[in-house]
Amino acid sequence: MGTGYTETQLRAAVADAVRAPSLHNTQPWRFRLRDGGIEVSVDPARRLPATDPSGWGTRVSGGAALFNLRLSLAVAGTPATVRLRPYPADPDVLARLVPELPRRPTPTEQGLYAAIGRRFSNRAPFWPDPVPAEARWRLGEAARAEQCWLELVIGVSAVNAFAEIARSAHRVLERDPAYRAERADWVRTEPAPDGVPARAGGPQSEPQDLLPSRGFGGLDRAPGRDFEPEPLVAVLGAAGNTVVDQVLAGQALQRVLLTATDAGLAVSMLSQPIEVSGAREALRLSLGRFGTPQMVMRIGYGQPGVATPRRSVDEVLDVAVAPG
Ligand SMILES: Cc1cc2nc3c(=O)[nH]c(=O)nc-3n(C[C@H](O)[C@H](O)[C@H](O)COP(=O)(O)O)c2cc1C
């Protein structure tokens, strides 16, 4: 294809891209059309300095948005060839997408695309029903299709060992007043285009909880409404921890989340053990894996999640630079 993407195509795809998850719903992404290609960048102004000093979360979030963008373009019949980190001198540009030969979307693409608007983080307790083997296999395939791995933490002792790592990471983070202040800044009790609405924040945590919850100031807990005793915990990892690995992990994350949604599963994310480097290393060792854990998910069956707001397409578009 000699011609590039149009602004109409860009806008339609960005409307889907922004439905992606992001750390504290900061939506740290920007999109622009340049020489017929769509470029996805992180928005450094939306990085969380205390929670995410390295910018890992902005790149995982940006990768998740990139996955939605790819799906949206493919389902519109205008799939893209993607180059990650196209300008070595500008690491904030995560990807550049140019049109490849038009083709019909595959049934998998259509199924995942249909799940974009039904995917929400679900921080509530799940039902005790186990996730069937077929669905577990599909989740692993989703990660592998995006050059990442997904390790399921199986068995009571493995889940308890993971929980110990996660709780200790949580305690380390909670000791930092700047981290707590940042989280409080992104909890929303009034309508807002970003941040985590308190009603989506999940229930208040209680001492008997196995896994730590981020504490977005959620709802009171109904008596007896405990978390599932044996949650299905999945660790998503990449080959390494470069900028490109983190963008790949973001794409794989979104593919796993959409695959889960398509299979009727609910997911919540917990990244405390990723954000504390000692915990991340302990997690890697406990899995006996090479590469770098990039995200942890709790997966199960639950009530429908709560939608969170997004900024408008206009707010995340950069106006094209006129060709010189
Ligand atoms: C990199 C990253 C890290 C996240 N970490 C957590 C976490 O530790 N705890 C949590 O409850 N949610 C976590 N989330 C989920 C976000 O808070 C959520 O995606 C955002 O609020 C938007 O809501 P939605 O997923 O329902 O669209 C994380 C998301 C991303 C992309």
From TrEMBL:
Q: Which InterPro entries match?
A: Nitroreductase-like, Nitroreductase/BluB
The segments labelled Disordered in the record are 189-212
- Top-level division of the source organism's lineage: Bacteria
Q: Which SUPFAM superfamilies match?
A: FMN-dependent nitroreductase-like
User: Which Gene3D superfamilies does the entry link to?
Assistant: NADH Oxidase (3.40.109.10)
Question: What is this protein called in UniProt?
Answer: Nitroreductase family protein
